[in-house]
Specification:
With 696 residues, the chain is of the alpha/beta class. 40% of the residues lie in helices and 19% in strands. It binds adenosine-5'-diphosphate (ADP) and magnesium ion.
Length: 696
């Protein structure tokens, strides 16, 4: 990028200098651009700021005034209170900070303060601030009290306090705004189409809004930028993938699809129908399909996937489905066989544990094409499996497979098939778009009719005996139960129950008549599989477990999911665990056990009262914050989204994605003069992202 005034080191801005520059650097501000992006953390609307004269006892108020006098007052109980008298044109009030005598050194007479808190009665009106901000230093504070209608306060530090930031902005903002255009990439067309202000305007509104509405418009513009560049890199990665691997134009004859519709004992839900149309469109176009099918447990993803596989098969190609574990692969193979038997279509199972002979036969039929549908584990990609002509690969439970593995499967000729990823972890559409912007998204947001919802309840540890009695009564009726713990082993660091220890206790003291099993992540996968098989076969009544059981296992006879230390789990994880029961025709129960008075209770109540996985996911996003969720995924090195808020900016994300994809479709390498500014941003600010996606 060419030198821009925005690159000017912070030291050379008015009112900074070399000494303060170091302090600014510690706040993350090294040049003029950083300063412009240093967003206020709080806006106070003057219409919500009360005049001091109008403050009444009992009000929760924000006020602005100048310190007229101040001092530390000792109390009889030894507490020292800092007090100041604040004054504006309408009157005076005492402001008190009990236990903070050191403020006496920080605040001076003449400083202008913004304070918010409750007005109490204490020898007259007294305000005890929850928060205070020094708006101006010293006697020329008139300007803060009179300037504008919105009071802005910044994230500050000990070395760069609020009033310094404010004064540096006062001295430099007008000039910096004239530089902002150097970074502009949004064209007049985009401005009009998406209702975006220019950068110059956005920064003016960010730092000196006349209304809260202006501040919000500024935030949205800068949020759009973040989301646009996120999507742009993903759009390029997506285009690369498609360009190197032209799509298959699958031919739909209905030879198999129609008979399946007729053979199924149910009608597809509206959501399944919509997802299928999206999938058929992708598959019959010349573009390669790269789609994620997302839906809660039980929404009927497998049925959708089977139709997609049949489209490939009736057009003359093979199809395969890849599952994360052997047991899941076997379950899928059985379920899919059941659906396809009436059609006379066979399903071949390929896992690591086949006998040498079965394996040789399977491989043979896969490569000579006599097998049309294959279900397996990652044995499908790791081993030397040669498909004759593979049309589609369906990948179940995407989080267990990396992006690379997703792309690794191909047929004998090296042709890469269409890809459909099925995920049973519902996440809000915006989060999905941010994380998987290189995939298209189909959502199954609707349950087939007639499902019996799982009853969720909260129990305190005081009631454990009663809970065990309940588990016993379910088992007496022939059902099975899971009991989940947050830890495998006892830990010295945290005082939590562990699966191993509790397994000992439960099997020797609590469930004496019942058969108790244990499964956790430290077991080798063959051991895990064998325990799971016993549970599936009904040879275990109570399965003591950790979260290893959260993925996909289908045991319709299990009717109780008991989760100990429920507060230790994220809501989405709890939902995933809850999805392990309620798969049969019997009423099922999810019981969350916590300590009495546990502070996470509010969160758990939300979970108890919400059965929709997408709603649970939104609550999880709200509670945990997007940084946590974005950070744990493949964008580990991405800067957090600072302006964009995935809970509210879904519309912006949709705009950003369609714009990014349109630009990349028209000018893949961003070579045209129109896109020079975009390219400059990518190379300057988003270089690491290009590397991550292998686009650079
Ligand atoms: P998922 O893979 O999303 O967890 P499945 O595809 O395994 O869900 O479907 C769960 C159960 O619901 C299966 O028994 C399936 O036969 C049944 N099912 C799927 N679609 C429908 C539908 N539209 N109406 C009724 N039952 C359905
Ligand atoms: Mg296609």
């Amino acid at each position: 990028m060419n030198y821009s005034h925005l690159d000017r080191p912070i030291q050379f801005l008015k009112g900074v200098g070399p000494k303060r520059a170091d302090a600014f650097a510690r706040l993350g501000i090294t040049n003029a651009r950083d300063l412009l992006y240093h967003a206020p953390r709080r806006y106070d609307d003057a219409s919500s700021v009360e005049s001091i004269g109008s403050l009444e006892v009992g009000m929760d108020a924000t006020a602005i005034g100048r310190i007229r006098s101040k001092g530390v007052i000792p109390t009889r109980r030894g507490l020292r209170i800092f007090q100041a008298v604040l004054e504006d044109d309408s009157g005076m009030i005492t402001v008190a900070w009990p236990g903070q005598p050191w403020l006496d050194r920080k605040l001076r007479e003449g400083d202008t303060l913004l304070v918010s808190g409750r007005v109490k009665f204490f020898h007259g009106r007294q305000l005890q601030p929850r928060e205070h901000i020094v708006l101006e230093r010293g006697v020329d504070g008139e300007s803060a009290m009179k300037s504008g209608m919105i009071f802005v306060s910044y994230p500050a530090s000990e070395d760069v306090p609020q009033w310094v930031l404010r004064s540096v902005f006062d001295k430099n903002l007008t000039e910096m705004l004239t530089w902002a255009d150097d970074d502009e990439y949004v064209t007049p067309r985009m401005q009009a189409e998406y209702g975006l202000p220019r950068l110059e305007e956005a920064f003016k509104w960010l730092h000196r809004p006349k209304t809260i509405y202006e501040a919000e418009k500024a935030r949205r513009r800068l949020a759009f930028d973040e989301l646009f560049f996120l999507q742009l890199v993903q759009a390029q990665a997506r285009r690369r993938a498609n360009e190197d691997n032209p799509g298959i134009e699958h031919i739909r004859t209905n030879e198999l699809i129609r008979p399946l519709h007729q053979a199924l004992p149910f009608e597809l839900t509206t959501a399944q129908g919509r997802a299928l149309r999206e999938i058929y469109n992708d598959m019959s176009s010349g573009r390669r399909m790269n789609r994620m099918l997302q839906g809660d447990v039980g929404t009927g993803k497998t049925a959708v996937a089977v139709f997609a596989m049949l489209l490939s098969v009736e057009g003359g190609r093979q199809a395969c489905l890849m599952a994360p574990t052997e047991i899941l692969a076997e379950q899928h193979a059985r379920g899919i066989s059941r659906m396809l038997d009436p059609l006379g279509v066979e399903v071949t199972l390929l896992t690591g544990s086949l006998s040498v002979r079965s394996r040789r036969e399977a491989l043979e039929s896969i490569s000579n094409g006599s097998t049309r549908i294959v279900v397996g584990t990652h044995a499908l990609i790791e081993e030397d499996v040669a498909f004759d002509e593979l049309g589609i690969v369906v990948i179940d439970e995407q989080h267990r497979f990396g992006v690379k593995q997703r792309m690794a499967i191909s047929d004998r000729e090296g042709r890469i098939p269409d890809v459909l990823v099925m995920s049973a972890t519902p996440i809000p559409r915006s989060l999905a778009m941010a994380l998987y912007g290189d995939l298209d998204l189909s959502l199954l947001d609707e349950m087939p009719p007639g499902r019996m919802p799982v009853t969720t309840s909260l129990r305190s540890t005081d009631h454990r005996i009663a809970v065990y009695d309940f588990v016993r009564s379910e088992i007496a009726m022939g059902r099975q139960a899971y009991i989940v713990y947050p830890l495998v082993d006892d830990s010295e660091k945290i005082d939590l129950l562990s699966a191993k220890r509790e397994f000992e206790r439960l099997s020797s003291e609590v469930f004496l008549q019942e058969r108790v099993g244990l499964i956790h992540g430290q077991l080798a996968s063959a051991e895990k599989d064998s325990v799971m098989r016993e549970f599936i076969a009904g040879k275990i009544d109570v399965l003591v477990a950790t979260t290893v059981i959260e993925v996909g296992i289908d045991v319709p006879n299990a009717s109780v999911m008991l989760i100990e230390h429920a507060e230790r789990f994220g809501l989405s994880q709890l939902h995933q665990l809850r999805g392990r029961v309620g798969r049969g025709t019997e009423e099922s129960h999810c019981i969350l056990v916590t300590e009495p008075g546990e502070h996470a209770l509010e969160r758990l109540r939300i979970f108890r009262d919400t059965s929709d996985g997408f709603e649970v996911a939104r609550a999880d996003l709200r509670i945990r914050g997007q940084g946590d969720l974005l950070g744990s995924q493949q964008h580990g090195r991405d800067p957090a989204l600072r302006f964009a808020d995935l809970l509210v900016d879904e519309d912006l994300l949709v705009d950003a994605q369609s714009e990014a994809r349109a630009i990349v479709a028209e000018d893949p390498e961003l070579k045209s003069a129109d896109h020079a500014a975009i390219q400059a941003h990518l190379e300057g600010l988003y270089k690491h992202r290009l590397e991550m996606y292998g686009v650079g």
